[in-house]
Amino acid sequence: MNPTLTLALIGGYFGLLFLVSWFTGKNTSEKTFFTADRNSPWYLVAFGMIGASLSGVTFISVPGAVGSGQWAYMQMVIGYLLGYFVIATVLLPLYYRLNLTSIYGYLDQRFGVSSYKSGAILFLISRIIGSSLRLYLVAVVLQLAVFDYFNVPFAVTAFVSIALIYIYTFKGGIKTVVWTDFLQTFFLLAGAGLTVYLIADELNLSFSALVDKVYESPHSQIFFWEWGAANNFFKQFFSGAFIAIVMTGLDQDMMQKNLTCRTLPDSQKNMFWFSITLVLANLLFMSLGVLLYVYGTETGLVREVFDGDCLIQVKDVITGEMVCRKTDQLFPLLSLNYLGPAAGIIFIIGIIAAAYSSADSALTALTTSFCVDILDFEKKQGAWKKRVRNYVHIGFSFVLFLAILVFKVMSNDAVINEIFKLAGYTYGPLLGLFAFGLFTEWKVRDRWVPLVCILSPLLSYVVQSISPAWGYTFGFEILLLNGVLTFAGLMALRKK
User: Fold this and answer.
1) DSSP 3-state percent helix, strand, coil across the chain (nearest 5)
2) How confident is the model at residue 488 (pLDDT cuts 50, 70, 90)?
3) What is the residue-averaged pLDDT of the chain?
4) Three-state DSSP class for 26?
5) Burial bucket for residue 376 (CB in 10 Å: 0-12, 13-18, 19+)
6) Closest to 169 (Cα-Cα) out of 361, 405, 368, 419
7) CA dihedral in degrees (459, 464, 467, 472; nearest 10)?
């Protein structure tokens, strides 16, 4: 694909986002940045949250992962529905009743300032690592597809990526993000849908034949029942439910959008429709994955080998040789090299939309949490707040930029994946803290809560590391163990 054309597309795409930012940033206040004046249409929020939930990692990884994992991921997606029901009926009423700007304010009212700060810091750590990793993966794709051609250093690519987010979010904040996420979700889903259409056209498949191809493929198996396996249905289902609760319901990034809705019923409608649409979106991406393998194998471009670390081989566009590739690379390699210019354009726009729909809201949520939870903005007065908020926004932009460079320097997938997993462990203490607050009436010795929030993830990591020796492999249910350990630690700290 022509790098100059790709660069022009990227420029046009961000030009559209800047236009949206200009309209949504007019006549805004500091309250608008954090809450969008509680005036967002629920359907706009619901659709925009799809893009924030999927992210660039999902856009690239889920289609390729069906080769080795089939549709096991759908078991977890089905579990999301239960988790989102809990969010809509338990957590959202709590947040609206307390009129929270940051959801971690609940911990302050329930336990005390140490628990409150602990919850906020856990979120900040998780979001910084998770968002910077997602941006790093997308920056790598853009570097290979575009910026290497112009001899632009990776550090410049990363800096520009972060700077663009800052520019279109610094004024309107979450109000801008609600609208830009709506647009970016549209481009994300359109990208996947149009790629499916192009594959069907290449293989001369009608719609019914396309459905049959997906249904009959061995890659589209959904349910797995072996108890000891990490992809067991019950493990995946309940893990999905709790992941939805903690990574949406206990996550400031995702909840900040929900809390911009006008009323609690609007926010609940948003959550219900979002959950249904998210299931359909994941079905689209997994169907795309099956079709990528079908197209690749039928045209001789892809060979599934399952030989140690080499799961697939893809035909090199220059040498014509079959080369081992990661499954994550299947979608970009076929789109950019073999499915034609239209597919390349669609992929670039889709991956940018996927990456930035999660990153822009993350930057805004990081700024919100630090200002409200750490700097106690809501307890202070003065015009200096806008200046400080701008400094915080710039500061987190710089932190994300540095984190991307750190991932680049590592260049070790195993190490990076471990760091990403460890970041996910921080949601376990949040689960334990909120569960203890909601389902018990006990107070705790607040000053010792940070110690519990440190020890619980560490113990969970140790248990997960040694569990294969017992004949058991932990999957996402490690989150539950983490939450249980936190709950037990709070029990030990309860005041009698």
Assistant:
1) 75, 5, 20
2) very high
3) 84
4) coil
5) exposed
6) 361
7) 130
According to DSSP, residue 446 is labeled: G
Residue where the block lists tokens 């959904």: 222
Instruction: Give this prediction's pTM.
Output: 0.84
Banded model confidence at residue 227, pLDDT cuts 50, 70, 90: confident
> Which tokens is 489 given?
């630690």
Q: Which two tokens stand for residue 88?
A: 């809509």
- Of 445, 443, 460, 424, residue with least CA distance to 122: 424
The mean pLDDT value for 325-329 works out to: 79
Contacts 24+ apart (CB under 8 A), 349-352: 349/9, 349/13, 349/187, 349/191, 350/59, 350/187, 350/188, 350/190, 350/191, 350/192, 350/195, 351/56, 351/59, 351/60, 351/138, 351/141, 351/142, 351/191, 352/10, 352/13, 352/138, 352/142, 352/187
> Which run of H or of E encompasses 345?
helix 341-369
CA distance 73 to 62: 8
Taking the C-alpha atoms of residue 278 and residue 418, their distance in angstroms, rounded to an integer, is 27
pLDDT at 475: 67
**Is there a contact between 239 and 76 (Cβ–Cβ < 8 Å)?**
yes
Distance between CA atoms of residues 304 and 292, nearest Å:
12
Q: pLDDT tens digits, residue range 415-446?
A: 445 555 666 678 889 999 999 999 999 999 99
Two tokens, residue 366: 């990081």
Q: For residues 437, 438, 440 and 444, what is the CA-based torsion angle, rounded to 10 degrees?
A: 0
- Name 334's Cβ contacts closer than 8 Å, sequence gap at least 6: 292, 295, 296, 301, 302, 314, 343
- Compute the distance between CA of residue 53 and CA of residue 65 in angstroms, rounded to an integer: 18
Distances (CA, A) of 471 to 227, 418, 464, 475: 11, 21, 12, 13
Which residues in 420-443 are b (16+ Cβ under 10 Å) and which e? Answer: beebbbbbbbbbbbbbbbeeeeee
Residue 150: Cβ-neighbour burial (10 angstroms; 0-12, 13-18, 19+) = exposed
Distance separating alpha carbons of residues 405 and 435, to the nearest angstrom: 37
Phi, psi of 339, rounded to the nearest 5 degrees: -90, 5
